[in-house]
Amino acid sequence: MRVHGPERSGGQGLDRHQEESGNRAIAALLTDDVVGPQVDLVLTWRAGSDGGAGGADDRADGAYEVWSARGMVRFRRLVDDGGALRFEVLEVLGENPIADQDPLALATIDAERAAAAASGFDADDPARRFIAPEHQSYPFGYERVAQLFDSPNAPDLAISPKDWASGAQPGTHGSLHVRQARAPLWFSGPGVRRGRHPLAIRSVDIAPTCLAALGFPLIDGADGTGRVASERGVAPDVYLARQDGRAAHEVLDAGGPQPSRLYVFLCDGLHQTELEDRLARDPEGLPNLRRLLARAAVLDGGSIVNFPSITWPSHTAIGTGTWGGHHDVVNPSYYVRADRETVSPQGLQIGTERFASTAVESLSEAFHRVDPECMTAAIHAPFGRSARHAVLEGRNLCDRSTVKALTAEFAADMTPRFATEHPAVAGESLLDTRGVAQVVELLGRDDLPPPRFVYHELAVTDGAGHDYGPHSDGLADALTETDVRIGRVLAALDERGLFEETLFVVTADHGMAPQMVELKANTAAHVTRAGMAAVVAEPLVWLLDVAVEVERKPDGRTGRVAVCELDLLPDGTQPPVAGAEVIVESHEPGGTPTVLARGRTDANGLFAFPTPNDVESAAIAVSVRADGFNPRHLLLDGTNLALDLRAHLY
């Protein structure tokens, strides 16, 4: 086995210059009287023994850490001789907070009720059916934590709030635990083994499973280790340029008819237990989803999505077969260290395919590689790179007047109450109406071939889940109108005679959990409220730190401090920090602390000072404070003066 640490160093996680700030932030999040009870996990990768220089040894010696009030675990990621990823636990204090990684936990509404009751909450009130961490699971937890820190865009710290502690909306998502991370998953049509399958797969498995069913060729692409097949000394074994997932052959029918088309219905934010419960309670309802269900391979454990379990990273993971740490859209908003800039694909909404790494391949790109002349479409999907028709990317092949007329015709599908109760949900309903109009227009054209691949985002289930709650009558209405829209798409495919040759996927980009809205919880913001310098984009935190190097001349009479920005610029340099306040004190055992020097760094980030040659470097303390950065405290021998997090917490 060999250690497979973060693939691309770019400042993510904690290095030796962030021991003080990182430990302080973790302690603040887990011990604050208000925020501490809201935080489930704080996640990071910490550099190894070479001190965070970013080299191979640093990554080999580093480890991933998961901290919680109930315990912590350190682990590392390995690659075995067969090229498979493995995980080795290095240390546990108290309870390993993500030891339970059962992918089938909480897969039914009854299981959720039982877990809520065991957690001390009201199992019968869907708005208060909260589930404590000890009754959750964290499927594929080690992998989902580790993948995040492969990207240079990754944070220093990631926070996974408790089930009920993520904002003031009645429903939300984003955490590592299964309730917010599970999406429903059906593969429906030719090429699959119909019926229920007692398994869960990762969202990155969806793309390769579909391409395997379609008979796409295996290529010399990179697997989950980031190495292409030829580098690994094996025959081509993946379907995409980078493929973290695998083809789920358990659900494929190699001997049956093969599909020629792929249609992905992504019902944004649709919680699996709500869908399953609705189908059980309402035998006459959702007729169009039932039509797909009748020919589907249904995964009991659904799809376990990217972490953070949030729209933009999760959509891109499904559309590329890669985790967010590899496609680089690590969050709806994230900090780009080299540019000193926060970007927000979700805030922009339009033109966001450019944020994904060009080292990964979209499903549309894979279709064009195999069939260069084929038609592909992304219907309001947050990730639609290279799709021929993708309105959010400015590629609109539809006749505008026809779409406008169809939108007016389909307006009857919209739930009237949304406009008065929650206008934002009504806006998503209108968006979905326009999306279906685009599909119907494209399928009705004589001058264009029908799309061979469609990635279709249906957003109203997410909006209703947020504003009404994931198990509410508002969500029920949103699901009803979504079923009607799916029916319109199926009818258009029927009219072209394409239904029987199409493989459909019904899934979501994340789960959803009810919230204690009275908390108005924002756990990540506590880092800055605690007085720390950081960039925060829920649930991720980028600490703003300086690199401090100290040295002392061999004669013991002088010392020097060099201060620069920790984060590299695009050219790989670290700007010096001028004007940082430096205080140097002696702290001899039994003696009174004495200020030896005080001053500020020059234009080169340097400050030099005299030292008594009869005082050891380990008894001389240096503090550095620079505007806009977290302070540093260390000894002249280089030892950090940082909180002992283990002793403090446990």
Word description of this protein:
It is a single chain. This protein is of the alpha+beta class. A hairpin with a 4-residue loop joins strand 15 and strand 16. It contains 20 helices and 30 strands. It has three domains: 192 residues, no CATH class; 320 residues, Alkaline Phosphatase, subunit A (3-Layer(aba) Sandwich), CATH 3.40.720; 104 residues, Sandwich (Immunoglobulin-like). It starts with a strand and ends with a helix. Helices cover 27% and strands 22% of the residues.
Radius of gyration: 27 Å
Portion of residues in beta strands equals: 15-25%
| Helical coverage, percent range | 25-40%
Low-confidence stretches: 51-56
| CATH topology category name of the largest domain | Alkaline Phosphatase, subunit A
The total count of strands amounts to 30
Distance between the termini: 32 Å
Q: Assembly state here?
A: single chain
Mean pLDDT: 96
CATH class of the largest domain: Alpha Beta
Number of helices: 20
Q: What about the largest sheet?
A: 8 strands, antiparallel
CATH architecture of the largest domain: 3-Layer(aba) Sandwich
What structural class do the secondary elements suggest? alpha+beta
List keywords for this structure.
650 residues; alpha+beta; Alkaline Phosphatase, subunit A; Immunoglobulin-like; eight-stranded antiparallel sheet; eight-stranded mixed sheet; 20 helices; 30 strands; 27% helix
